[in-house]
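S1.2 Input.
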Amino acid sequence: MRLAEKGFDVIASVEIWAQVQTLKRQAAERGVGLRVEKLDVTDDGDRRKALAWDVEVLVNNAGVGEGGSTVDVPEENMRRQFEVNVIGPLLLTQGIAKQMVERGTGRIVWVSSREGLNVNPFTGLYSASKHAIEAIAETMAYELQEFGIEVATVNPGPFLTGFNDRMFQTWQSWRDDASKRLFDYSELAFSRSQFDPEPVYATLTAVAAGEVDTFRNLEPKSMIEETKSLQRVPWDRKVTDGLKTRAKQVQASYDMEPETPVSD
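S1.3 Output.
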């Protein structure tokens, strides 16, 4: 909607047909014009359909979040995490990127995450999918630069949109033997207080519009130095560090209340 307000001809995609009219109504209430299309990135028919849209700026924002320990998350949930967050978007991008190459111009924006750069307990599968996006996007930027195609990432941190907290409810639908789990997920919550999402909305819009030319765009900016510092931690970590004690990062999920905002 913000891109439409800037004058872009926006094709806004939704996952299921039932969402089409809802988004059209929201756009009308806001006074902007959107072309709304059903595009499930895991559906080959939908991906093929998108090749007829002559996309000049592609924002890969499809994503789901699977919460749970890396040793508890069931196989089908693992596979869906990567099908939605990585495989589907990349297959969609392959076709559209080649169209951009033919035109000699285009912009591809990957919505990654701060967890594409760091990790936290109980969001490891989600983080792994976003680490994969980081590798894809950075490689793609090198591969497509000679063809005039811009590639960028946006890395949202912990924003209070409901997404982070819902990750910690997915276990309720797991088809597994609950007695074999290492953790009782009814006791756990997303481990960080969360920010107002306005900055990431503004940054994502600006990156998509070409108003920002940095490859990596992390929000909130107040977390940039912490993020860089945490990237250095594995270089110094010993395999025996903290053995037989609960990691403070794990304990944080026991201590945090869901949907806790960052205090002013």
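S1.4 Remarks. The longest strand covers residues 149-156.
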